[in-house]
Amino acid sequence: MALDSPAERRDEVVQVAMGNGNGVAPLQPLRPAGRPAAATAPYLDRRLRLNPNAEHKPQDYSDVRGEYAPAVYSALERHLPPSLLDADRDVKLHFMRDILARYWPQGERNKVQRHKEYRQRILHLYKPLHEELYNMHPSTFFLPTFLEAVRSNSEESFRSFMTEPIPGVYSFAMLQPTFCEMLLEEVENFEKWVHAMKFKIMRPNTMNKYGAVLDDFGLEAMLNQFMEQFVAPISRVFYPEVGGGTLDSHHAFVVEYGKDRDVELGFHVDDSEVTLNVCLGKQFSGGELYFRGIRCENHVNSETQHELCVQGDEEISEGFSHLVW
Questions:
Q1: Rounded distance, CA 119 to CA 201, Å?
Q2: Residue 185: helix, strand or coil by DSSP?
Q3: Which of 36, 55, 71, 191 is the most exposed place for a label (fewest CB within 10 A)?
């Protein structure tokens, strides 16, 4: 699973506003007409932190309405300059809105709004096949060994059920077979419903022509718990240097491969701090997963060094689906 969100999600906005590779990002926020100068002027020469302040507890923005989700402000607040962290919430809010308005073009915001309306329409009309999927039930979703390791919450407990084929890549059993079966059936039911309703389904990314975003048909709340309670404890231990301890959003989707589906996915760089891939295959052959190392922002599109290419485990059978977090 590669839980982030559509291409227009918060991650990209915050990264654009924060990243220039030197630990800070220059800011020159524009003051919209009519906005009090006092709310922003004292901070015009400040710089955002590239790495979030993990010790800072963001203020509550759940009552804030508008085109940005409250989680956007909570995430961005951890990157504010030290001089601004103790300012009034309204001052921080104005400052962050200026940043987002400057670095997130109107066209991109329009896309997000259209996707929001699309999702709301689905949630209003779609009837789930498996209601039990939509609320977190750890004992029926996860294997006992996985649950026990998460409860212990230590590197030793996590490594007790993992293998590490190459440094930084971990393989482990996590989900109950019944959960995987229900999830596949729910996705198939959703796709049949979309076809019957003559909706145009929004695919997970621009590379796959088949598959679905799980949040689009109501699984967002459950997957938030999945991330916060079961993915974050592991990523906090193994990926602290890339933000594994501050996960705050996800993009969970299923992609489908087969003779009448996508046949491959080329090499690419995930736009996420942590990626969790889950094989939901029934019967298929092939399905190799390759890793080519971690790229810094200056070499995202550079040529791959052959020695960095590592092949994941191969499953043998006949067509499969793939869940990415």
A1: 10
A2: helix
A3: 55
Helix 70-77, helix 10-18: angle, nearest 10: 30
| Residue 5, phi then psi, degrees to nearest 5 | -160, -170
CB atoms within 10 A of CB 65: 6
284-286/290-291 β-pairing: unpaired
Asked if 138 and 179 count as a contact pair (C-beta separation under 8 A), the reply is: no
CA distance 53 to 43: 18
- CA 55, distance to chain mean position in Å, is 22
Give 318's strand partners: 284
Q: Mean pLDDT, consecutive 10-residue segments, the chain of 325 residues?
A: 38 32 36 41 65 91 84 92 91 91 81 86 95 97 97 96 92 95 95 91 84 94 95 95 86 86 78 88 79 68 56 38 48
Q: How many residues does the chain have?
A: 325
Eight-class DSSP state of 175:
B
Nearest to 205 by CA among 252, 160, 172: 252
Asked if residues 51 and 23 have their Cβ atoms less than 8 Å apart, the reply is yes
| Residue 264 structure tokens | 């491959």
In DSSP terms, which residues pair with 164 in a beta bridge?
none
Within its chain, how far is the Cα of 240 from the centroid? 16
How far is CA 288 from its chain centroid?
23
β-sheet bridge partners, residue 322: 255, 279
Torsion angle (degrees, nearest 10) of CA 166, 167, 169, 171:
60
Q: CB–CB of 172/142 below 8 Å?
A: no
**How distant, in Å, are the alpha carbons of 40, 103, 120 from that of 114?**
30, 19, 10
Evaluate if pTM is beyond 0.90. no
